[in-house]
Amino acid sequence: MVIGIWIIAFYLLGTVAGKEVCYHRLGCFTDDPPWSGVPGRLLTGLPDSPEHMNISFTLYTRETGNNSQVISAINSSTIQNSHFSSRRKTSFIIHGFGSTGKKGWVVEMCLLLLEVENINCIAVDWHEGAKGTYVSAVNNIRVIGAEVAYFIKTLQKIFRYSPREIHLIGHSLGAHTAGEAGRRIQGIRRITGLDPAGPYFEGTPPEVRLDPSDADFVDVIHSNAAHFPAIGLGMYNTTGHLDFYPNGGTVMPGCTDFIPEMKQSDFEVIIADATIVGGCHHSRSHEFYFESILYPTGYLGYPCETYKSFESGDCFPCSQEGCPMMGHYADRFPAKLKRVNQKYFLNTAADPPFATWRQKVFIKLSGVKKMRGDINLVFHDTEGNTKEYEIASGVLSQDQVYTKYLDVEINPQNTKKIEFLWNKTIFTLLWARLGAETVNITHGEDGHSLIPRCITRSIV
């Protein structure tokens, strides 16, 4: 009788032997290197049990509507009796530290994906394992990744379901969780890392973190990269086939969070004991992905070595092979597997839907020889919306050519007209006139140039 109790305890709670813990179905976990004791990962501890973390998988399909079905690989009949279909692709969405998969952005993303694709969308919740200290959550993702892998194996067993039908989408620690699942299950079609967590992952061996070998295709969005001396919650180094760095990848427009500057050693001491929840910059990665589902052309990434080169226009327009779209449609890029660690840059708007279209503006002025003021272009779309952008300011010269790269928030396909606007200073002579002799705009996607129909307007 006593022996039987110990056997039950082993299967339900796991066993700890030294620096190793074993859980039924999932195997054993150790804190030997590279899981701890290596540069950038001087943490200790072992993951909690699946039961302690209360891990759940919630299915959303077009049949469930705004409702859902809780399904379990342990009780596989729940999958068989659900609306899960082996004839559809499946997306797993995995939250990060301090978050949940039962509400908020995870559920909203599932519902939006179902509007554009007839898929199985599974929200993975591990909030009980994500609400303690950051270090404990880092240790716990190995068990979460093993549970996701076990779930996929169950689908293979029941439905002969291929991993090539599966897309794992993970934010922060959820990105590395997806990587752990991919390390255990070969042949997963795609993993998307949304600002993969940086502390205890940056610079670590590939088996510890998300890396290109974890799936057939790995794409990554960096929105709060830890680019010292600035402190961020995300990774700065590339970790996929396509790595996107919107707005440079560290500080996002529209966010008011203060990003401190400190020594990395100080940061490691703080994060080891603190409960840190990702702020606006860190969350932008999943917000960008969400909006990219609806605006597939508004997140074009340009191949550049640095953000500075991108800003100066060195990588504009796209080459003959084209440019990938950051976010949901990144897998449509023909050259996505050309090599690993391909870096792409783009700018976004400060507010939803964040989408922009990069354009090179070339303006040649006509009128008086020199005067002070500024010249702007106003873009009008077919729905009556307008956006104004400054091209030049200060002393303006006749016959001078002004060139500027704009990230326009109006889709070129919906542009109705472009207005040339000259704002005079109070010192400008009343009869002074300034116009645009030539206005040429080049689109970034195909390098196509056009001469728009402009309306010239002066403001005193």
From TrEMBL:
Alphabetical keyword list: Calcium, Disulfide bond, Lipid degradation, Lipid metabolism, Metal-binding, Secreted, Signal
One Gene Ontology cellular component: extracellular region
InterPro entries with a match to the protein in the record: AB_hydrolase_fold, Lipase, Lipase_LIPH, Lipase_N, Lipase_panc, PLAT/LH2_dom_sf, TAG_lipase
Subcellular location: Secreted
Record: active site: 172, 195, 282
CDD domains with a match to the protein in the record: Pancreat_lipase_like
Residue sites binding Ca(2+) per the record: 209, 211, 214
Chief site of localization: secreted
Coiled coil spans: none
Catalytic activity: a triacylglycerol + H2O = a diacylglycerol + a fatty acid + H(+)
The organism's place on the tree of life at top rank: Eukaryota
Enzyme class, broadest EC rank: hydrolase
Lipase domain residues: 19-354
Leader sequence residues: 1-18
EC number: 3.1.1.3
GO-annotated molecular function: lipoprotein lipase activity; metal ion binding
BP term (GO), one: lipid catabolic process
Recorded family membership: Belongs to the AB hydrolase superfamily. Lipase family.
Protein name stated in the entry: Triacylglycerol lipase
Lineage summary: Eukaryota, Metazoa, Chordata, Craniata, Vertebrata
Originating gene: LOC115348497
